[in-house]
Write a structure and sequence with these properties.
Blueprint (H helix, E strand, L loop, with lengths): L8 E2 L3 E4 L6 H9 L1 H4 L10 H16 L4 E7 L5 E8 L7 E8 L8 H16 L4 E7 L3 H9 L3 E9 L6 E10 H6 L3
Parallel strand pairs: 5-6
Antiparallel strand pairs: 1-2, 2-3, 3-4, 4-5, 6-8, 7-8
Helix pairs in contact: 1-3
């Protein structure tokens, strides 16, 4: 197990910590929120049992070093704001995908940006990644702007069928290399 994938991270205003069983209601609220799911091709969780099952699966995958998954928690009041993860690691563990989601009331005030900066730092310094990608629906302007702010550039646009309803979705992959990150590090 890679201990970097299991440790709590810190930013100016946030803790990035492992999910715990007591987060079930928060995960239900996050993963069933229509605004959060608007740009994520997944079925919303239906109930607390689904949320608990997701937490169990997420923790098992982290323990097996398949991914790293953190709850974004506000320091001042310990509010559950959302999640951020590194996953889809390449076989040689040199590239990974970053994913993030925030409850609507926490969007647009820099929490995702702080969290992304810290996770990029962990990925490039501690894990030795050579690049990170972000996979996003092409109409998800807030997430695209966040990635562009942090020097991700468009790698590819493509269309795939939704896993939920089979309809075509235009997606984009954004990429940042370690060299670009180092040259533009905040």
């Amino acid at each position: 197990m890679n201990t970097f994938l299991n440790r709590t991270l810190s930013t100016e205003r946030c803790f990035l910590r492992k999910p715990v069983a007591d987060d079930a209601e928060n995960f239900f609220n996050l993963r069933s929120d229509p605004a959060v799911n608007q740009y994520i091709d997944r079925k919303p969780v239906a109930n607390l049992d689904d949320a608990r099952e997701f937490i169990t699966k997420t923790l098992a995958g982290t323990d097996e070093s398949k991914w790293a998954y953190w709850v974004i928690q506000r320091k001042v009041d310990k509010a559950f704001m959302g999640t951020i993860c590194l996953w889809n690691f390449s076989d040689d563990r040199k590239t990974a995908e970053v994913g993030f989601e925030l409850l609507p009331r926490f969007q647009g005030v820099g929490y995702a940006s702080e969290s992304l900066i810290r996770v990029m730092e962990l990925g490039f310094i501690d894990l030795g990644l050579s690049s990170l990608t972000g996979y996003v629906q092409s109409v998800n302007t807030p997430s695209i702007n966040l990635m562009k702010t942090h020097h991700f550039s468009l790698k590819e646009d493509f269309i795939e069928n939704s896993a939920v309803d089979g309809k075509p979705i235009k997606n984009s992959i954004y990429l940042i290399t370690k060299e670009t990150w180092k040259a533009n590090r905040e």
